[in-house]
Amino acid sequence: MGSLGKDAAAAAGERVVLAVNGARHEAAGVDPSMTLLEFLRTRTPVRGPKLGCGEGGCGACVVLISKYDPATDVVTEFSASSCLTLLGSLNHCSVTTSEGIGNTRGGYHPVQQRLAGFHASQCGYCTPGMCMSIFSALVKADKTGDPAPTPGFSKLTCSEAEHAVSGNLCRCTGYRPIVDTCKSFAADVDLEDLGLNSFWKKGTDPADVGKLPEYSSGAVCTFPEFLKSEIKGQMKDAPVVNAGEDGWYHPKSIEELHTLFDSKWFDENSVKIVASNTGAGVYKDQDLYKKYIYIKGIPELSVIDRSNKGVEIGAAVSISKAIEIFSDGTPVFKKIANHLSKVASPFIRNMGTIGGNVIMAQRLPFASDIVTVLLAAGSTVTIQTASKMLSLTLEEFLEQPPCDAKTILLSIFVPDWGSDNVIFETSRAAPRPFGNAVSYVNSAFLARTSGDAASGELIIEDICLAFGAYGVDHATRARKVEEFLKGKSVSAAVILEAVQLLKDVISPSEGTTHPEYRVSLAVSFLFSFLSSLGNNLNEPANAIAPNGSCANGSEKHGTLGSDDLPVRSRQELVFSDEYQPVGKPITKAGAELQASGEAVYVDDIPAPKYCLYGAFIYSTQPHAHVKSVNFRSSLASEKVITVISAKDIPVGGKNIGSGFRMLGEEALFGDPVSEFAGQNIGIVIAETQKYAYMAAKQAVIEYSTEKLEPPILTIEDAIQLLLLHGDSDRIGHPRRG
Prior knowledge:
Layout: E1 4-5, E2 15-20, E3 23-28, H1 36-43, E4 62-69, E5 74-81, E6 94-96, H2 98-101, H3 110-117, H4 127-142, H5 158-163, H6 175-183, H7 225-236, E7 240-241, E8 248-249, H8 254-261, E9 271-274, E10 291-294, E11 304-307, E12 310-314, H9 319-327, H10 331-340, H11 346-351, H12 354-363, H13 369-376, E13 380-384, E14 389-393, H14 394-399, E15 408-415, E16 422-429, E17 441-451, E18 458-468, E19 476-477, H15 479-485, H16 492-505, H17 515-533, H18 591-596, E20 613-618, E21 624-631, E22 640-644, E23 658-660, E24 664-666, E25 673-674, E26 680-686, H19 689-697, E27 699-704, H20 715-724
Helix pairs in contact: 3-6, 9-10, 15-16, 16-17
């Protein structure tokens, strides 16, 4: 194979150079699957970022990543989930953690001081992640062209400040003090609305920004000068490295990528193609990969092309960047941007790519909001295989068989619908309106209408109804409903018929949780949309303009504004001096240490030399004999040192995991019978925690239910069993108690 222009520091066996809190670090010969969080916590003194969920969903590991463009001399900063970010993708980047913006030695940052002063820390484990989410929002806002704020404040608005922590989900201390901390930096905040704090006495002293720890922009250097010099020096002597047995590949063009695809060692089962690796938070890797191909440095995948026909967005463009692009556009584009801002969390949107989301929805049963919205907007995609380039509608692309690893999604084109006679709406139902919550159902509707001069009603000339996440492989269009609605004006009878048709079209797959609820949500979305088009249904006095707004200027769609932030409230407290200082709002000792990441938790204590790690193997069947435990052949299984089970308990020992006087003893291992699904049946021992977890997931367990009664899986079954044994005195109704 020929030589490839490649980032010399981006392959295993070579060095990755980065700055961590202003200090230079090198990583040589690291596993290409190593994440930034692993590197920070095992190769540097940094302990602020924590491993919480490991999926990019909790925000405990958030850091600020800064990249420098020597051509423009511009530094770009963004928050990121370090538990998903691969180290190899960060060559010549700067990483700032909570320790880097403030600490006991150099003084605390106002973000850390205000988190402490507003009592926004309890256990403090995830507070450093919150700290960095707020700090990242401040850095981003300070670079906007907005007017300079009043001294002590930032350019953030209250809404932007509250959205900054929408992905930081651990709030054991209560949501309000965290939000108050965020809003204390906002230029449009009413300080009297802020809650209990240690800066002024609530209800007695006047609220004054001068009493808050002073904030000034640019106080923290996020990209050191030495790293800029190294980057500029590398431009003069760009290396050429033979791509052979290295673990990390960084092609700089589509041609180089195809050359890698054609190499003898390429195997899609052992090679992972990554842009941001956020997909690993949704579909956890079932095995380790020997080689990684990093495609975010390919210019063709980062194209952004605006024209009067629409917008073409490269597949490697981040979701956050796509939101910026759509926000500065027509009403349809702005609606798309608004919906995309509810997808995942800020630090995931900063990393995750628009193309990665689309390709994942095409290959896997992924409940994508983005695909549903783009489908309704009439988007097309450009893909490239080894032999040709194709342009397909997004619907055609989704209907194709799952793409193989060598099929490249180049870009997505979204047409410009303008605003005349076009009404576009999106909806989603999720456990939370913001912050890493997968939709139960999502929808997007686009209607092209015309006015009937005689009746004053809107006629639906054309319509697209897209639904997703309701228990199917990918988003689909309700074609039968669309055909029925074309050419009609909306009436109660038309809505009723459309709803009945939709119930037949929306059919969740077998095994989908709460199928009836999901169908009812889809119906409610359509009902709401069509009702807004019917001029005589709800508000006969208000004519509907072609852009979907009422004659009085109010938005006809989504008038409730349930997703609007910030939340406003007042807090009135009455204090007594009878038992002081009990009941006084005193700042917790150590709160600033927690916010800076310097507080030491058990997991922050360095592991001893030659430490091994374990992970439980859990039973997947209830009430079954465990005959054997093996591992499927994989790279992760090769890392297993041993497996500990009940058979390894020494003579005289007991298989007891816990014991309580009221509940009795509970076995450590399910042996010889697994009593319930999820019971521990063994422990995998490996050199790292990651290897142990992955190997445990790949355990192949052989069961037998011979001579065993069927498991009891419902409350009703348990009651019937008790009745058979004559124990009926304590039995109530299974639902009412």
